[in-house]
Write a structure and sequence with these properties.
Length: 168
């Protein structure tokens, strides 16, 4: 018998460390723009991975590409070169008109990369130029640096983090 969503909430709540609130929905599968929960309820998926991987669900070309790659090698260290990475970097450089592509594992890491590049660039002309401005109520990730840029986080927390990050 299929597990009920209440049972999944219960098991998840017991074992998963909550760091943000979630909707009580258990997506099961999707088809194009539609998402179905484990009870068969149909949704139009306007969210995807919060604007990440907005590729539609069960897209045959994508399922085929991921399946083929998973059957070859699914994860190797970035200490090696891989053909898919060389292909993806080349494509991104061509499409963006920029010089290089940087790959990250998460939004927070991508933002950390952007912060480092901005600081490095500005420090070349003026070492005092290190202020990063963010919008009110914005979210930029859960690493220490990106958490400092989230305007939802209390001042006490950000101040504490800033202080603890200072080199001694
Ligand atoms: C604007 C923005 N920046 C950063 C992040 C963090 O992404 P991740 O959870 O992949 O680190 C998110 C995630 O929702 C985001 O919406």
């Amino acid at each position: 018998m299929k597990e009920t969503q209440e049972k999944i909430f219960e098991r998840d709540d017991k074992n998963y460390l909550p760091v943000f609130s979630r909707y009580k929905i258990v997506p099961d599968h999707g088809e194009g723009a539609y998402l179905y929960d484990i009870n068969g309820k149909k949704y139009i998926d306007f969210l995807a991975g919060i604007a990440v991987n907005v590729l539609g669900h069960n897209y045959p070309a994508l399922v085929d590409a991921i399946s083929k790659q998973a059957a070859k090698v699914i994860h190797v260290s970035n200490l090696y070169y891989t053909e898919p990475q060389a292909n993806a970097a080349e494509k991104l450089v061509k499409l963006s008109g920029l010089d290089r592509a940087f790959f990250a594992n998460s939004g927070a890491e991508a933002n950390e990369g952007a912060i480092k590049v901005a600081r490095k660039f500005c420090h070349q002309t003026d070492r005092e130029k290190s202020l990063i401005i963010t919008a009110r109520h914005s979210f930029h990730g859960r690493t220490l640096a990106t958490l400092n840029l989230c305007r939802k986080v209390s001042t006490t927390l950000t101040t504490t983090i800033s202080k603890s990050l200072k080199a001694r």
